[in-house]
């Protein structure tokens, strides 16, 4: 039941509603009514709209909804993903669309936004921004805040194809062989790293997260169940891959396995300790003083 009180020469009405995202009961108010009846009727109308699931349609802006949504979303995703989501929201979506009411955001408005983004940023950046917006609006539909997701079937054909091609560097087999040969230096960490990535198709983060215990020299297999993730500009962490399909085993050819074993024997002289199975595969040595040897992640 809305409550009315007099403030100066006008009246204020307060009413309650249930936040469909958090499930919490919240209060809202409005001032400036000339009569008690006018204020009370306004409050009753808001409570009726709330019961019908339509109140939020008139309340949220794109900015206010996204900021509320990400606070709950970030608890269910990795730190790195949350950081990327916030960049998409704060640097891309909010500056362009933030002030628009969520219920009044039209498909044509969003399509224009995407076209403009494609002119300024990489295809990958735009796709991430679109993924964040689409996911947020799916949640809004599920919670009956809006009726449909206007990001569906968005057109990305305005992409600068030449620019996209420049960003995709694909090496032929002979080129890769020449590259690897140029790195053929005994017990060189870069040689081992690029050889392993080239011959297994590992992602950079997967390779850097490898521990010696992940390599089975008998079955000639690599166990992939973790990856290095960038938390911020200078901080990294080892965590689980984004998807279950990323957890897998990869067969190793004899040449690659031989090189890895040579690298292991070399590390035994300087780096590996008793619990070598839990140590990172790609460690390097950096001498600060003649008597002081430091090892760090590659």
UniProtKB/TrEMBL annotation:
InterPro entries: CB, DNA_brk_join_enz, Integrase-like_cat_sf, Integrase_catalytic, Integrase_recombinase_N, Integrase_SAM-like_N, Phage_Integrase. It comes from Listeria fleischmannii FSL S10-1203. This is Tyrosine recombinase XerC. Residues 60-141 form the Core-binding (CB) domain. PROSITE patterns: CB, TYR_RECOMBINASE. Signal peptide: none annotated. Residues 165-298 form the Tyr recombinase domain. Belongs to the 'phage' integrase family. GO terms for biological process: DNA integration; DNA recombination. GO terms for molecular function: DNA binding. Keywords: DNA integration, DNA recombination, DNA-binding.
